[in-house]
Write a structure and sequence with these properties.
The complex is a heterodimer. In chain A, strands 2, 4, 5, 9, 10 and 11 form a six-stranded mixed beta sheet that branches. Chain A is mostly beta strands. Chain A is built from no helices and eleven strands. By secondary structure, chain B is an all-beta fold. In chain B, strands 2, 4, 5, 6, 9, 10 and 11 form a seven-stranded mixed beta sheet that branches. In chain B, strands 1-3-8-7 form a four-stranded antiparallel beta sheet, with no helix packed on it. The chains are: A mainly beta, B mainly beta. The interface between A and B is medium-sized, with 26 and 27 residues.
């Protein structure tokens, strides 16, 4: 079984400051990991993904995340926050199932607020 | 490529009624998954369809059902609606091997 823990349901940063959103996962098999962003009244947009290979993953809008197996973490960062980054962010884990297909298990989300 | 589309975007129903939501996946994507999003329970997996077959199922009552057509379009149905079914219902499509899922804008269902 897979699970995801996102530390901090609300994070507030100043515009131009570093963004760090924390995600820890639990998985019995090598995981696929994802970060999604959700703006109000919209669906989820894929920011970045880790499947195999390079552990530092770059995504859209200047975000990146590093897969650390030893720490079972996949934290999301952005060097300089912009007002447009204000949204809710979800970390998710997926594993391919023996019957085929996959299911995403999401964390509870982190609401990012960017202040002037 | 066009993204995942869902119709309708908003829906208001009365307790006891039934509702059908529709999802059109990204062209070429054969897997369609449905999720329910509520403030209290967060994002929960409902079911996944592939080649017109339900391949995986979440922990929801039998009132929630779905199907997939030969063109990969999918519908989900909720019968005997309850107030607790009020939620944002998200559809996602994916390629078989990559695991990443692309979401539609969702259908906001309100049950009164």
């Amino acid at each position: 079984a897979q699970s995801v823990t996102q530390l901090g349901s609300h994070v507030s940063v100043s515009e131009g400051a570093l963004v760090l959103l924390r995600c820890n996962y639990s998985s019995s098999v090598p995981p696929y990991l994802f970060w999604y962003v959700q703006y109000p009244n919209q669906g989820l947009q894929l920011l970045l993904k880790y499947t195999t290979g390079a552990t530092l993953v770059k995504g859209i809008n200047g975000f990146e995340a590093e897969f650390k197996k030893s720490e079972t973490s996949f934290h999301l960062t952005k060097p300089s926050a912009h007002m447009s980054d204000a949204a809710e962010y979800f970390c998710a884990v997926s594993a391919l199932l023996t019957g085929g297909g996959n299911k995403l298990t999401f964390g509870t989300g982190t609401q990012l607020k960017v202040e002037l | 490529k066009a993204g995942v589309t869902q119709t309708p975007r908003y829906l208001i129903k009365t307790r006891g009624q039934q509702v059908t939501l529709s999802c059109s996946p990204i062209s070429g994507h054969r897997s369609v998954s449905w999720y329910q999003q509520t403030p209290g329970q967060g994002l929960q997996f409902l079911f996944e369809y592939f080649s017109e077959t339900q391949r995986n199922k979440g922990n929801f009552p039998g009132r929630f059902s779905g199907r997939q057509f030969s063109n990969s379009r999918s519908e989900m149905n909720v019968s005997t609606l309850e107030l607790g079914d009020s939620a944002l219902y998200l559809c996602a499509s994916s390629l078989e091997r990559t695991g990443e899922q692309y979401f539609g804008p969702g259908t906001r269902l309100t049950v009164t």
